[in-house]
Write a structure and sequence with these properties.
The protein has a single domain, classed as UDP-N-acetylmuramoyl-L-alanine:D-glutamate ligase, CATH 3.40.1190. Strand 13 (232-236) and strand 14 form a beta hairpin. The chain contains 11 helices and 14 strands. It is of the alpha/beta class. The protein is globular and about 50 Å long. The chain has helices spanning 45-55, 70-81, 125-128, 132-136, 149-158, 171-174, 191-198, 208-217, 256-269, 274-288, 301-313, and strands spanning 9-13, 17-24, 36-43, 59-63, 65-67, 90-92, 98-104, 110-116, 140-144, 164-167, 186-187, 222-226, 232-236, 239-243. The strands form 3 sheets. It has an 8-stranded mixed β-sheet, with helices on both faces. A 4-stranded mixed β-sheet has the order 3-2-7-8. 43% of the residues are buried. Helix 10 (274-288) packs across helix 11.
């Protein structure tokens, strides 16, 4: 199997689920049935990252868990059709595939989300030990905190010599990554997750020096703190700064962070300068929000660069 692999490829380990996304047509009225646009699409943090990676013409192998149900069959078919390699994933009989439900307001911003990713508990260190060859030869590994603590511990210990990207997923799940900050090369928390991971009360333009000192003390390599529409806080090589792009039209925010992470991985694979990689990733996240789907299928490296150049020129 290894002979068929490209020289550079990424292995993505984590969630793959069906996304049910609802966007209200008007301002949401609580305790009422709101007329909305509702779509079903493949989702899952790591799966979304994998699809975005493939859209940028990179090879990506997804290690995840599917249920042996209609949703599982749907996910496997969709992943294959999109060019994501799933040969190293597993299917569990008599198990329900992971599901994510998001309720968005009429601006496309999430109000609340529900998820059931219990099937991922089957993605154990014992199973990953059988995938040692593909992991050891990967150019980079990306994980999400949907994985169990045991599995995250295993990856960060056994593959600490590999370049590891990590997405905390949520405030509650981010605690699984806290003790591995020095083993992860690039981590992308949002503001609340970053405060928890770093143990600080405030992160803003007035506290950047304090945050930088804390990151250095914790031996964090690189961190991108997502601020949503306000851009990101970038930390690399002991330097911290706020980076943003002009606000653009938003259709759906689901998947923007996944596109951002894929952009960071793409920049690493191509040996791009860090600040340009961050701008490219922000542009990619921006394009992602302009699609009603979790992943914007119109994304290519050329389209992201064009979008970035157009924004910078305005």
């Amino acid at each position: 199997m290894m002979n068929n692999l490209k020289k550079d490829y990424i292995v993505a380990i984590g969630g793959s689920n069906v996304d049910i996304l609802g966007k209200s047509n008007n301002k949401i009225v609580l305790n009422e049935s709101n007329p909305s646009e509702i779509i079903i699409t493949p989702g899952g943090v790591v799966r979304n990252i994998a699809e975005n990676i493939v859209l940028l013409k990179n090879e990506c192998h997804l290690i995840t868990v599917f249920g042996n149900d209609d949703f599982g069959n749907y996910l496997k078919k969709e992943n294959v059709n999109k060019g994501i390699k799933i040969d190293n994933s597993m299917t569990i009989k008599n198990a329900e595939s992971a599901i994510y439900v998001s309720v968005n307001n009429h601006h496309g911003e999430m109000l609340v989300a529900l998820n059931n990713t219990n099937i991922l508990n089957n993605l154990t260190p014992k199973f990953l030990k059988t995938k040692g060859s593909i992991l050891l030869n990967a150019s980079a590994i990306v994980i999400d905190a949907n994985l169990s603590q045991e599995t995250i511990n295993f990856i960060c210990k056994e593959f600490k010599h590999k370049y590891i990207f990590a997405d905390p997923v949520s405030l509650k799940k981010s605690k699984k990554l806290k003790k591995h900050l020095s083993s992860i090369n690039i981590i992308k928390p949002n503001l609340s997750e970053a405060k928890f991971l770093l143990g600080v009360k405030e992160i803003n333009k007035n506290t950047l020096k304090k945050v930088s000192d804390r990151l250095k003390k914790l031996n964090v390599h690189r961190m991108i703190i997502s601020l949503g529409r306000k851009g990101v806080i970038s930390y690399a090589n002991d330097k911290i700064k706020s980076i943003s792009l002009p606000k653009q039209r938003i259709n759906n925010v689901n998947g923007a962070g996944d596109a951002l992470m894929a952009g960071l991985i793409h920049g690493y694979i191509n040996h791009w300068e860090w600040d340009y990689t961050v701008l490219f990733s922000l542009s990619m996240a921006n394009l992602s929000t302009q699609s009603p789907n979790t992943v914007n299928l119109k994304i290519t490296e050329a389209s992201v660069k064009k979008h970035l150049n157009e924004i910078i020129a305005t």
